[in-house]
Amino acid sequence: MASRTISLVTFRNSAYQRAHFGIFIPSVTDQDVGTLIHVVGAPMAGYQLEFKRNYSLKDTQQQYTRYDIGQLDSQYIEDSAGGALIRDSVPKGAVEVAASQIPPPGISQNFLAPVNDVGKSGIFAGSINTRLANQVYVQTTNKRCQEWTMEYTRHLVQLGYLDAAAIQLVQSKRDPATHGIGLQPLGSGYGLSRDSI
Prior knowledge:
The chain is α+β, with helices and mostly antiparallel strands. The chain has one domain. It has helices at residues 94-100, 145-158, 165-172; strands at 3-11, 20-26, 33-42, 46-56, 64-73, 86-88, 118-121, 129-132, 136-139.
């Protein structure tokens, strides 16, 4: 079956803010229209999984950067019919089911703390851990969209949907652990909301 190039798409409202991450799967007919798989929310409120179907990168109002992370066999993708933008949280196709298997970040116990994603050796032990080959897991205790996207990418590799190189590609685009963490002065102007993504 044919494959498609899937991408990490990063959106940044301000140089002072952490980038928002999403995985973009293009439609079979247009490389710039497809499904954006991401989590939306905020550290103090928690996040939820969202699929933006018929999403057009050309029509976004926000500055973004697109990085190809690998080839995905089309058998794992279910395309959406019609041309209207649809937002939902019901997975269609194996690649979206895989996304639904990674819990979105909950309410952060300390949203001012740096994010983390530290690899450790050990036995798989619980929902906040993502199992990797040879019983190596990653425990993430302060998650946002970038950390969720890393867990999702690792899961796609574990399932054999993507090559292992995708993990390093996504990891290399993450912000430093303390970047964009903390309160900003009122009126510092961060531009567009996540709804404009």
